[in-house]
Design brief:
Helices cover 40% and strands 22% of the residues. By secondary structure, it is an alpha/beta fold. A hairpin with a 3-residue loop joins β6 (137-139) and β7 (143-151). α3 (75-91) packs antiparallel against α5. It is globular and about 75 Å long. Bound molecules: ligand TXE.
């Protein structure tokens, strides 16, 4: 039988280490440890190092030494290592899923079937990508050009709390596949799976220092990393304001940068959509992971002729969602990441009410059992009757809250959808193929899904425009980002 959440919380919090050169090490300024809280219960589950400049420098030096060896390995050798990492995570899948669920408050079954499954797929995908990759070759009449991809050196991976291992592995697998060594700075709110992964690297015999982990606050450990000249590229996923700081510090030294930031994603529902399928699709797009995915739909735009019917069906479907114990298979939603985040979401719902919004379901903290009452919870919430320009419709809430707005024409829907500072993803719900294409290309976003959401082929370009980000990752876009392309031109004089 699965243990209860109370049984999983240690009576004395464990102490997590940084991982530098293949060894677990504490912070050099011994005194500083930070609490890692289980957001479902509010209890401290571990203590993490509050790393500073010196810790980051040690990790960077370890990465630099490892990279000198690693860059000499062949692509098939790297592919073998990636594959063995995927196998080793798979062998400890439940352990990883439990750690992710405890750190984030998300249901265990979602951590296992979404987060950890995808982390394994990321390593497997880039195994295949480098085994089958081709680079360019351009023939001239009297010369041959060919392109080689060269490693960058040491890269910094800064990752958020919403999909901790999923997003870290999305960056880490192509980074090492291309011959780089890595220093990772996971979110201070979700440090555990990045740490477990360091054990896996040792288990499979990776060079010591290929993957280093430095825990701590963004403003300390994060900036020490982004400012350091050893770091040749930064891949960051997180909030837009943080991305701005990261970009500023990286720009000074012309580091390569991939920034994946916030979103305020619109779902455009046309009167010719398959309503049942659309309701199910939008419910998933809005509330998976408690709405804490940068791709989640948070503004639902519905054509007026079907507005009342659609809203009624959406609300009924949302009311069927179960919020509760992350250990239970029947929980659809778990806890939010923290009390601070819960307060931020409550603030947005209050602002919506002040702007005249009507809360049709949710809008408050759910009733919960004693075991989890101390956590950071919020009900899935649907709000209507708001102007499209109000605060909650323009800013990223990053929680289980959606607003629904009616529209009359296609042009109006496009204008509302594109009317924010963000441009990450959109979904279009229609059975008219021409409209699907016409509206999709009109979206100022990096990604559009038609009649689906989070349907991912890992070869495709992933990233946003406007304040949602710069750069693309996925397939050869990742291989390009984590390497420098070099063209070699060989003269072939005509005899
Ligand atoms: O993320 P931060 P936060 C959005 C979401 C959320 C908001 C803030 O709206 O409410 O961002 O979340 C590290 N230099 N997203 O504050 O701060 C930090 O330690 C270098 C969207 O939790 O952006 C962590 O490892 N690094 C999002 C990482 O950056 C710094 C996912 C992300 O943290 C740093 C998460 C600095 N100055 C939040 N400051 C998405 N796009 O999926 C912080 N960090």
């Amino acid at each position: 039988m699965k243990p209860s959440i109370a049984e999983l919380i240690p009576s004395t919090p464990a102490t997590l280490s940084n991982w530098i050169a293949g060894e677990p090490v504490g912070p050099m300024s011994h005194a500083y440890y930070m609490d890692n809280v289980n957001p479902a219960t509010g209890k401290v589950i571990s203590k993490i190092p509050r790393s500073q400049d010196m810790d980051v420098q040690a990790a960077l030096r370890a990465a630099q030494s490892a990279q000198l060896i690693w860059k000499k390995t062949s692509l098939p050798e790297r592919a073998d290592l990636l594959e063995s990492i995927a196998d080793a995570i798979e062998a400890r899948k439940d352990e990883f899923a439990q750690a992710e669920s405890l750190d984030t408050g998300k249901p265990f079954h979602i951590a296992k079937n979404v987060d950890i499954s995808r982390a394994i797929s990321n390593f497997r995908f880039f195994t295949g990508a480098i085994r089958h990759d081709e680079t360019g070759c351009h023939m001239m009449g009297d010369a041959l050009n060919y392109t080689v991809r060269k490693p960058l050196g040491v890269v910094a991976l800064i990752t958020p709390w919403n999909l901790p291992l999923y997003l870290l592995s999305w960056k880490l697998a192509p980074a090492i596949a291309m011959g780089n060594a890595v220093v990772a700075k996971p979110s201070e709110l979700t440090p555990t799976t990045a740490t477990l992964l360091a054990e896996i690297f040792n288990e499979v015999g990776a060079p010591k220092g290929l993957y280093n982990v430095v825990h701590g606050r963004g403003i300390e450990a994060g900036t020490a990393l982004t400012n350091h000249p050893i770091v040749k590229a930064i891949s960051f996923t997180g909030g837009t304001q943080t991305g701005r700081y990261v970009a500023q510090s990286g720009a000074e030294q012309f580091k390569k940068m991939s920034l994946e930031m916030g979103g305020k994603n619109a779902a455009l529902v046309f009167e010719d959509a398959d309503i049942e399928r659309t309701v199910q699709g939008i419910r998933r797009a809005s509330f998976l992971n408690q709405g804490q995915i940068c791709l989640c739909a948070s503004r639902i735009l519905v054509q007026r002729s079907i507005y009342d019917e659609f809203v009624a069906k959406l609300v009924a479907a949302v009311q069927e969602l179960t919020v509760g114990d992350p250990q239970s298979e029947s929980s659809d939603l778990g806890a939010l990441i923290s009390d601070d985040h819960q307060q931020k979401i409550i603030g947005y719902v209050q602002s919506a009410k002040r702007d005249g919004g009507k809360v049709l379901c949710g809008g408050s903290i759910p009733e919960l059992s004693d075991e989890i009452r101390g956590g950071s919870w919020f009900q899935p919430t649907v709000i209507v009757d708001l102007p499209t320009s109000c605060k909650i419709s323009m800013e990223e809430v990053f929680g289980p809250v959606v607003v629904v707005h009616p529209f009359d024409t296609e042009e109006e829907a496009i204008e509302i959808a594109n009317g924010t500072q963000y441009g990450l993803a959109a979904t279009v719900w229609t059975q008219n193929l021409e409209r699907a294409h016409r509206v999709s290309v009109a979206m100022d976003t990096g990604l559009v899904w038609v009649n689906t959401w989070l349907h991912r082929d890992l070869r495709t370009p992933f990233g946003g425009v406007k304040n949602s980000g710069i750069g693309r990752e996925g397939g050869h876009y990742s291989l390009d980002f984590y390497s420098n392309a070099q063209n070699i031109c060989i003269s072939l004089p005509r005899s």
